[in-house]
Amino acid sequence: MTKVLVVEHEADAGLGLLGERFAEIGLEVETVGPDTGRAVPGTLDGYDGLIVLGGSMGPNDDVAAPWLPATRELLSAAVAAEIPTLGICLGAQLLATATGGHVRRIPEAPEVGLGTVHLNDAAAADPLLQEFGGTVLPVVQWHWLEADVLPAGAELLASSEACRNQAFRIGSCAWGLQFHPEALGDTAQEWTSVEDLTADGLDPEAVVRGVREAEQTLRVTWRALADRFARIVRAAPATA
User: Fold this and answer.
1) Where are the domains of the chain?
2) What is the model's pTM?
3) Which residues pair with 177 in a beta bridge?
4) Best CA proximity match to 53, nearest among 150, 227, 182
5) 9 classed as catalytic
6) Active-site residue 163, yes or no?
7) Per the residue annotation, which of 8, 9, 89, 163 is the catalytic one?
């Protein structure tokens, strides 16, 4: 059976909607990370895909999060071996950092709650995002950092007003998504309980309400992304 390795940095930042869909379509996932009791492995042997999720740390916070160097190594190895990879939020920042990009704090206010991203024309030819090319889509945002410089050769696929590099591809099949396709209202509710949004002038209740009101559209849109990523993962061994 096709198996995807999932690196989870924090228990409240799991696969969410994507995990629900993977279970429905029979894609096997194996989750590792500090709160799972399973260490990040040194290689991707035995795995057909890689997903690195979000978290509250930065991509170079190796002292506070000592599993990050191993995670960056996996991302670099996945790009080199053309193993289908998806980096979400922190995962996208780690992907950029591991392959020569740069991450910084967003100069203006953070992006938090319901937002939109614009998929550019290049997305229309992208294996993962092709059905969304040229469209504006609702997304859940939750980040104070951004990949402001992408690695050489990276393909920009989506942007928002506050963050140019919302979605990008490195190599043939490694994608970074700064937004959260896995998150719905319950996730936003949980994150507001651990994040002091008022310090950034945000109303936690309004943030959660905005996500809940868009939940049906979010669910339909990003389940489709899960389906496409699963197809890419399943096709990769035959292609190789």
Assistant:
1) 3-239
2) 0.96
3) 88, 167
4) 182
5) no
6) no
7) 89
